[in-house]
Amino acid sequence: MDTMKNMDGSPKTSIPEMMAVLRSSSDFIQYGNSGASGRFWISYFRTLVDSKILQESVLSAVTSGQWNDLDELKQTVPVENAMVTSDPDVMKEKLLQGFIMITRSEYGKSCLLVRVSMEKSRQVSLPEVEFSVVGPKEAFVESIESNIHLIRKRLPSEHLRIKEIHLGKLTSTKTAILYLENIANDENVRSVWQRVNEVEIDNIVDSSLLAQIISDNQHTPFPQHVDTERPDRVVSVLSEGKIAIIVDGSPQVLIGPSTLVEFFSAFDDYFFNYIVASFFRIVRLASMAFSILVTPIYVAALNFHYELIPRDLLNTLVSSREEIPLPPILEALFLELTIELLREAGARLPTKVGQTIGIVGGIVIGTASVEAGLTSNVLLIIVALSALASFTSPVYRMSNTVRLMRFPFLLFAEFYGLLGIVFCFCILATHLLRLSSLGRPYLEPIYPPRTADMKDAIIRLPFSQMFKRPLQLRTKQPIRFSKKKAEKKQDIDE
């Protein structure tokens, strides 16, 4: 007799072998029982199933109902997700997902699998990273079913498509790809599905791991997918033609394709007047540039270009550094690394202790370093403002990238002055020009220049002007609404 084999050529596990492996775990339960239709066997992991559903819905129907075979029993059990199979691999997979297995004998060749998994997750709460004063106050949780519900509730469209796949050879993590079929570009959908489907890894425990694997360029500090914890933001980008990826166990949803300017756009910008929102966006962009460049410019000016500093300011800088034994570069690196140490300590310690370390530690170390003559008070102010400016990015991953960018700029400023800063900027610009997100330009609409997409990039125009979807997405429906109707103002007597 030929041995049954899997698709990869390996021999299939027999049912007795499978049960022997599962019984080695202390939380696996298997026992025989009798009912109105005779004797049956039930197997399950007690830590994965809901005992209330098992007792009240499944066992009551199995013991009291009349059934001759498993197909009849399937119709009797009042649980939606049930299936009859004779494949040992399917049995093992479903048992590990919270199903119970019902057979006629201890090692029955076919079985009925019924889902009675225990669903435990925290309640929907306030956003912690993307909190806004105005607008919705709901955030994603670790349950993929709850997250899809939050999206479906806000986007009750028959065109919303959800494709599910399990990733990770060990974790078998449920992952869902969401898009609007009548809007999203088919090429983008195929690209995302192909990349996710080809993921080869043993475990996926969070969406951030998946984001690194499916990125166009894994050798860059710049994030290529926006991750958000806000359902309203996901619904908004889905209506633009983008694609969302949800990973079970992660409260962050990935969005793509993404552009650089999106990482400096907070979703609560749309809850304010376009003038106010545009001002805040410009402030964020200016803050990022300030955070990266201000300390390198300080080092370059003191080393090479002190003649460019106004005399009054130069006197202040000289007097603040007259007793400092360290050169500007070491002084700057000392303070920058101190700020990074305080950030990491505050992030790793418990919340209340971390806040105390961040505030008290910054004050004590800053004051002590100035009094000890290790750093100047002027540079201390500059580094503190630079650190504060880096927090203005609405996306945490981009703020980490900005923190990292300061160090290569500092080194170039030390060796080549302002010319080194310009050279480093050219390297950075070249790198950004080569980046893409799901095959779409990362710097769009700045390059390639697309005037039509500038309406919601560095600044935000009124909603009446945003009647077209982004050109880079190549959507099936480029027009969002009628521009004439949006701009029409009715008279009071109409």
TrEMBL record:
The keyword Transmembrane applies. It is a multi-pass membrane protein. The keyword Transmembrane helix applies. The chain crosses the membrane at residues 282-304, 378-397, 409-433. One of its GO terms (biological process) is spore germination. It is found in: Cell membrane; Membrane. Its main location: membrane. Signal peptide: none annotated. GO terms for cellular component: plasma membrane. Keywords: Membrane, Transmembrane, Transmembrane helix. Belongs to the GerABKA family. PANTHER family: LEUCINE ZIPPER PROTEIN 4, SPORE GERMINATION PROTEIN. This is Spore germination protein. It comes from Metabacillus mangrovi. The lineage of its organism: Bacteria, Bacillati, Bacillota, Bacilli, Bacillales.
